[in-house]
Specification:
With 599 residues, the protein is an alpha+beta fold. The protein has 16 helices and 22 strands. The strands form five sheets. Strands 6-9-10-22-21-20-17-11 form an eight-stranded mixed β-sheet, with helices on both faces. It has a five-stranded mixed β-barrel with strand order 1-2-3-5-4. A five-stranded antiparallel β-sheet has the order 12-13-16-14-15. Bound molecules: aspartic acid (ASP). The site of aspartic acid (ASP) has 8 residues, from strand 21 and strand 22. Aspartic acid (ASP) binds next to strand 21 and strand 22.
């Protein structure tokens, strides 16, 4: 294969392809890259040369480059790697408006073939129609495509801008371990067996949380890290088993300080990376208002269509689905889908199915016809006055479609929140190019787990409760709000964090509420609790999911489009075929035997 391959031997690249322009006219240059396309017009060979900057046209004529180079040029095929020495000239043929270098070409004086190439399994070009599994199997080729390169270059720019901003603000970049101790709260850990301590395991970090808090105890004051994190969860479209956090922690601060510096960070990164001017301060919403208005703790505020609580209006009506939900402590809420009274039955049925998929028993609807009459799935259970009152509460007008869910609050929020998003998309209710950043604040401290039959920390066990709510920790734990915050962009959670507990008594109580004995807490988090006994500053922090942030800023559809070597849904890497079996000898060293799984 590489019989003809030549080496660099004295050659030095002078420019990337698109670093050249008409300003370089007459200069002798050396460019290197991949052959995008070769066209042999008989006596003249055109080559589109590609590197990561873009494409440059090269022209070979025997009179310029000599017989040997010309013969080589005639043999060039796509993806050959070449080096060209030549002279920049104005284009002899038509100017190509689509290319940055469309008005110039390089007239080659010599050519070296640095590597030949087989025909790639798919064309190396933007907007590939190739199936994703083929792209991922040959990721090293896929990564040559300009749209992926654009994403990764922008990702690098975003990370660089974050670093430089953080450094300027006095944050110290410190690396934390990847081989850690397993802690039970949160997602499932990835485990790594220890050879030296047979039967013992490290866990890969789900986040640098405990270490960054320790760094505050050690006086580093402001910490920052772009850290790889690992969570062994079932994958969804915007999740990867390993992902990157832009992670920070600050000492001697409260909620406002963290939000303030992060708003400026967001503004800086958006401006420098994509030229987007973000207006400060960012909007804020309390968690409970986000749930009530949008049915989501990460609302997409690019459009309205907010949820309306009609529990009071339907109390005592004759519709058992509504009154039953209220009697069980739930609520009845609705969405007014403006101007959609004529939505075909099929479409409504699809919405009902979707509601069922998100946990509802059904979905009630009422369409206000153009003549003012109602067409409804539940009209026969209510008096005309009750129906009128309901329509008024929903601001219903002729032509509107009203949708209602009745159940426990959590279900009603979820169902209508999902429907709102779906309808927003279907009905083009927002501008996809708009960027709506939003802080969600005052999250509940605890969340009841049906599965575990106990309260769990909504954020993590070190999150500080709001002072004014702490009095309810015994009588009504669910009512206690936390000094926790999330940053949301267009309905996607970009990141989150909290002020941490730094007082013994609060932490102990928190463990008690979470069902940890003192011994268990010390067993798990002893190193942190011990560190806290030697002088711990008040501290707080936040972490961004960097992959998601990049995905939204570059406008990618999928998180895999902004990760160089992503994993797929079953957490495998299609290119390297990880995970995989290992040698018997490796297992033996680790003292591990594989047990057949019983079905
Ligand atoms: N470590 C937290 C997380 O991964 C973020 C934080 O509280 O700073 O969600």
């Amino acid at each position: 294969m590489i019989s003809m391959a030549e080496s660099m031997n004295g050659l030095k690249r002078t420019h990337r392809c698109t670093e050249l322009s008409i300003a370089n006219e007459g200069e002798q240059v050396t460019v290197m890259g991949w052959v995008q396309k070769q066209r042999n017009k008989g006596g003249i060979v055109f080559v589109d040369l590609r590197d990561r900057s873009g494409i440059l046209q090269i022209i070979f004529e025997e009179s310029d480059c000599g017989a040997e180079s010309f013969a080589k040029a005639e043999k060039l095929r796509s993806e050959y790697v070449i080096a060209v020495v030549g002279c920049v000239t104005k284009r002899s043929g038509a100017v190509n408006e689509n290319l940055k270098t469309g008005n110039i070409e390089v007239r080659a004086t010599s050519l070296r073939i640095l590597a030949e190439a087989q025909t790639p399994p798919f064309p190396i070009e933007a907007d590939s129609k190739t199936k994703e599994d083929i792209r991922l199997k040959y990721r090293y080729l896929d990564l040559r495509r300009p749209d992926i390169q654009k994403n990764l270059l922008l990702r690098s720019k975003i990370a660089t801008e974050m670093r430089s901003f953080m450094a300027k603000e006095g944050f110290v970049e410190i690396e934390t371990p990847v081989l850690c101790k397993s802690t039970p709260e949160g997602a499932r850990d990835y485990l790594v067996p220890s050879r030296v301590h047979p039967g013992n395991f490290y866990a890969l970090p789900q986040s640098p949380q405990l270490f960054k808090q320790l760094l505050m105890c050690s006086g580093y004051d402001r910490y920052f890290q772009i850290a790889r994190c690992f969570r062994d969860e079932d994958l969804r479209a915007d999740r990867q088993p390993e992902f990157t956090q832009a992670d920070m922690e600050l000492s001697f601060v409260d909620v406002e300080d963290v939000l303030e510096v992060n708003e400026r960070l967001i503004q800086h990164v958006c401006r420098e990376a994509i030229g987007l001017e973000v207006k400060l301060p960012l909007s804020r919403i309390k968690w409970i208002d986000a749930m009530n208005r949008y049915g989501s703790d990460k609302p997409d505020t690019r459009f309205g269509m907010e949820l309306v609580d009609v529990s009071d209006v339907v109390a005592g009506c004759g519709f058992g689905v509504f009154t039953g939900a209220l009697e069980n402590g739930g609520s009845v809420r609705g969405l007014n889908v403006k101007g959609q009274a004529a939505m075909p039955r099929k479409k409504i049925d699809a919405l009902v199915d979707m509601a069922k998929g998100s946990g509802a028993k059904g979905l009630a609807y009422l369409a206000i016809e153009e003549d003012g009459t109602y067409k409804s799935s539940f009209a026969k259970f209510m008096t005309p006055e009750q129906l009128d009152a309901l329509v008024r509460a929903m601001d219903g007008e002729k032509g509107d479609l009203l949708l209602f869910a009745a159940d426990k609050n959590t279900i009603v929020w979820n169902v209508l929140g999902q429907l709102r998003l779906e309808l927003g998309k279907q009905l083009n209710l927002y501008d996809p190019k708009q960027f709506n950043f939003l802080w969600v604040v005052e999250f509940p401290l605890l969340e009841w787990s049906e599965e575990e039959n106990r309260f769990m920390a909504m954020h993590h066990p070190f999150t500080m409760p709001m002072e004014e709510d702490w009095q309810y920790i015994d009588s009504d734990p669910g009512r206690v709000r936390a000094k926790a915050y999330d940053i949301v962009l267009n309905g996607v959670e970009l990141g989150g964090g909290s002020v941490r507990i730094h007082q013994d008594d609060i932490q102990e109580k928190m463990f008690e509420v979470l069902g940890f004995t003192k011994e268990k807490a010390w067993e798990q988090f002893g190193f942190l609790l011990s560190a806290f006994q030697y002088g711990v500053p008040p501290h707080a922090g936040l972490a961004y999911g960097l992959d998601r942030f990049v995905m939204l800023l570059v406008g990618a559809e999928n998180i895999r489009e902004v990760i160089a070597f992503p994993k797929v849904k079953d957490a495998s890497d299609m290119m390297s075929e990880a995970p995989n079996v290992v040698d018997e000898k490796q297992l033996e060293e680790l003292g591990i035997a594989i047990r057949e799984r019983e079905e």
